[in-house]
Please model this.
Amino acid sequence: MKLSISVALTSAVAVLAAPAPMPTPPGIPTASSARTQLAGLTVAVAGSGTGYSRDLFPTWDAISGNCNAREFVLKRDGQNVVVNNACESQSGTWISPYDNASFTTASSLDIDHMVPLKNAWISGASSWTTAQREALANDVSRPQLWAVSASANRSKGDRSPDQWKPPLTSFYCTYAKSWIDVKSFYQLTITSAEKTALSSMLDTC
Model:
């Protein structure tokens, strides 16, 4: 009986001590599927960025009830998130997957576009309609929107994987699979350097 109680207590402590799970937006492919998608992407020189404006990618559409895309992602990616009637996060715990930083205040997080909007612009979105760009900017059906630390998001900026990688190397695999999936779905191009970096990141899976 004493042994059973000891084991039970040890298990309970282990559960309590376990780190919060990393957020997992929908649609992340397997490594194998990502490699197939990567092989199917068109390699091309990136556009100049001329004419780009974030305003051309309307953000934070209503997603569910009173929740816009930002609040939807904060609620989805956090633990024990409490929201008010306007769907604004009042409390909760968030783990930034890019750098493993932990937060208890939603305002400390940014919502990152996995494929940055300017990168999308220079890889094909410059020829899209506003509605198509809006769909990319608010896509919660694929791994495009992530709640991350403001510092990681701003360090990344508009850079592609050959120019910036998450500080947390254990996230390379998920990062590459997510980036590839978004580019594949929206039929965006990649540069040769970008393809090499993504392939190398998939080797960590």
Confidence is low (pLDDT under 50) at residues 1-20. Helices lie at 2-17, 31-40, 69-77, 117-122, 130-137, 150-156, 172-185, 192-202.
